[in-house]
Amino acid sequence: MTKSDLTGALSHELQITPRDAAGVIATILDAMTSTLIQGENIEIRGFGSFTIKHYKSFQSRNPKTGEKVVARSKKLPFFKPGKELRESVNEARNFRKTRRKRTLKSN
Asked: CB–CB of 7/21 below 8 Å?
């Protein structure tokens, strides 16, 4: 799903203009980005949580030249799905597998 798809779905569900839906989505994403930039976590119950993972600097080698290179420390956003989301995805996957097996058996 793309941002455009999400905008269309929100617009249809709430019966608002696509422009208003895009504004709502932009506001939510901006708030989430600002929160992560400040080093705070985001938790959306039933969906998942966003955190910042800190990676230390380390020494590596350039594979082409063999030269030693220092990889700087960095922070990256990390998403951990919530229990309800994991269960929903797994149930959908199991449903598709079961349906496919039934189709194969009937042929």
From this structure: yes
